[in-house]
Amino acid sequence: MKQRWWRKKLTLMLIAGANRRIVRLKLPEISLFAVPTVLVTIAAGGTLAFVLLHDRYETTQAQMQKQFEGTEQQLQHTIESKDAELVHLQASLIDLTQQAEQFKAKVEEIKQLKQVLAVMTDGATASAANKPEQPQPVGGTELTPTAADVAQTIVTTKMSLTSMINDMNGLMASLAESEAKLAEAQHIRDITPTLWPTRSRTVTSGFGIRLDPFSERPAMHSGIDFAGNTNDPVYAAAEGTVAVAGYDGQKGNYVIINHGRGLATEYMHMTKLSVKSGQLVKKGQQVGFMGSTGRSTGTHLHYEVHKNGSPVDPRPYLVATRKENAEP
Asked: Which of 25, 129, 131, 191 could connect to 12 by a Cys-Cys bridge, CB 3.0–4.6 Å?
């Protein structure tokens, strides 16, 4: 019977030296394939294990690096937050210092006011001041203040100072509000046409229905006519902006000023103008010279007040005195 190949034996002879015994090892023929295969398997396994361990190392290192970067960002954010808190505390400290300075200044104002009041009342108290000061009757038991008494005094003093500061702030706010109201009232006064537009107080024709001097028929006279001399100055009745400065066949040389809040004034029949369209004018500023241009029977100023686009009687507005009129 033919022997199968994996059962065949190989003899391996190991000769140590000439005079020594020869060692014979019988190995199956399959070992010629098994040993290299085992060696290759071991090498491949080692290589695979190294690759896996290296990948695991790279993954672990990446995770640790990411975690480190996240921790570093958190620390950076915490540092920035602490820096912002520090800046806020510094700003609060500066603000507190400024408030302390303001309080000190207010106390100085109170001291000066006290001195003024003392001077004002000095005459009334001079006789009392010349008299020697008499000791006032006092009494009671003298006790050494305890730490609790001192602490309570400090708390009470702080409360009093806080109340005083609040009162002062309230007073300052009230004064500021009053100042704002005063400024607003002054602005309204400046833009309200209360000033007489001419030096002359002679009115030749009032507001309302009258006989037209040309047609001699009843007609609505939408303003007031002031008498005067040629080239007498004509003044802006209130502060505003020149809307129109030009010539019209009916109005002659005329000016319209917008004052805001729906008020406007108009000046007609002037010989020449002193302002231009778009120009800002002050109350009492000269806008032209009295004349007789346009539809006019002689030298005069036709003056109108418009409220929300409609002419109204100017007389209720004319409360200013001659001294308020500006000189040309």
From this structure: 25
Residue 251 sits in a domain whose CATH number is 2.70.70.10
| Closest-CA residue to 167 (of 88, 114, 106) | 106
**301 compared with 127, residue with greater pLDDT:** 301
- pLDDT above 90: percentage of residues in the chain: 34
pLDDT-based confidence at 120, cuts 50/70/90?
Answer: very low
pLDDT in tens, 212-243: 888 888 888 999 999 999 999 999 999 999 99
Q: How far apart are CA 164 and CA 168, in angstroms?
A: 6
Does residue 20 lie in a domain region?
Answer: yes
Please name the residue ranges forming H helices in the chain. 31-120, 122-130, 147-191
Count of CB atoms situated within 10 Å of the CB of 10:
12
Domain span at 217: 203-324
Answer left, alpha or beta for residue 46, where phi above 0 means left and psi between -120 and 50 means alpha.
alpha
Supply 126's token pair: 């001079």
Asked whether residue 41 is assigned to any structural domain, the reply reads: yes
DSSP-assigned states of every residue in 280-291 = EE-TT-EEEE-B
Residue 122 scores a pLDDT above 50: no
CA dist 314 → 14, 68, 98, 191, 218 (Å): 143, 84, 53, 14, 20
Nearest of 277, 263, 270 to residue 232 by alpha carbon: 270
What CA–CA distance (Å, rounded) separates 52 from 77?
A: 37
Q: Which residues contact 231 (CB under 8 A, 6 or more apart)?
A: 271, 289, 290, 291
Q: Which of 37, 69, 102 is the last residue of a domain?
A: 102
Helix (H, G, I), strand (E, B) or coil at 191: helix
